[in-house]
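**User:** You know discrete backbone vocabularies at least as well as I do. Would you mind producing a protein record, from residues through to fold? Write it directly below this note and I will take it from there.

**Assistant:**
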Amino acid sequence: MKRRIASWENNHSVPDEFYAPLICEALNVDPAELGLSTAKSQDSGLLETRYPPTPEEAFQAVDQLWRADLHGFEPLLLSEASQHAWSEASLRWLVAPEPSFPSNPGNSGVRVGLADVAMVKTTSDMFAQLDDRFGGDHARQSVVQYLSRDVSPLLTGQYTEAVGRALFSTVAESTLLAGWMSYDACHHGLAQRYFLQALRLAQDGDDRRLAGSILSAMSHQATFLGNYTEAATLARAARMGISGVATPTLMAQFHAMEARALARTGDIRACEAALSEATKALESRNSSDEPEWITYFDEAELAAEAAHCFRDVNSARQAVAHAENAMSGSHVRSDFFATMVLADAHLRAGDPEEACRVALDALDLGEQLKSARCVSYLAEFRKTLSGEFASASCARDFTAEASNHRLWQESGKTFG
């Protein structure tokens, strides 16, 4: 209750339909005197999935998101992703004119230089490492707090155009991270809103490569949520939108995202063609010419994407072969996903004993992960195991041993 009151007092929510009348009665005032009508309009704005038309509106929108998220505004945290928002964002970005710039930068606020931009970049990189190692739910609130309290004032500060462009691009990358972490925590509507704001900031930072990567992230989320047509479209829009400045690694990732979506539609031929294009692109890469934030996408990452694809089209043996090549040893959460795909593939190939052995490896690997997506992978495995293989002795032994693992316990709540 205290948290809800604090959220209302800080203009991040309004009292609900039951609580509001009690407040008004206790204070003997009308709702308008408490500013409830104004607060409601602010809340409805937070829940919009509109692509901001100007930099100033983008700054205001992302600042409101950070603050509402920080104060636990439940309608935002529980919101769903919008199919329309994915389509609108990709189209608006593709046809956008030249990057905009705030009309009156420098009239007020703190002075911002490249050293400040570098500080934001370094801090965000630190949070990205924590996300990779411990999952999106580990430090998500810390990231949002940093963005809200330390980064937001920079956006409305005093800076030259060159510094401003660098700032917008860096904040876009940080907001993308907040989006990924929110997605990993399965706050899907919130994650989508962060992706939208990051895309607008990347546009005004004149960073088309980063913008393409943000569309790729949207595609990843859309596939996870079952919106496969939208996911494939987003991946294609990413490719089209950066064709003039594309790098091989970025193109490989975009083809891989398209393949993930196509696999879910059952279009095996198109999926394999996209994977083939991804492989060819990655083979031609020159790491020194790639943005540093995409260099993680290597042969192991592509193998993981291929493993997901072949699992989803029920080519279990091919899924096993690719998943076995997908363990990087340096990305904990990615290795967890790849290990669980390997376990799924063994299960679908009719080898429950090996599947259970591999799934136990994944549970050991994910002991420190706080990730709702990881839980969803386990829930899917659990569902398959409890069906056809429920009577197998290895399944019973596995379930008994797995019951001591936190992620498995959480998957039981999801599965139940």
Q: What stands out?
A: The longest helix spans residues 161-184. DSSP finds 21 helices and no strands in the chain. Confidence is low (pLDDT under 50) at residues 35-41. The radius of gyration is 23 Å.
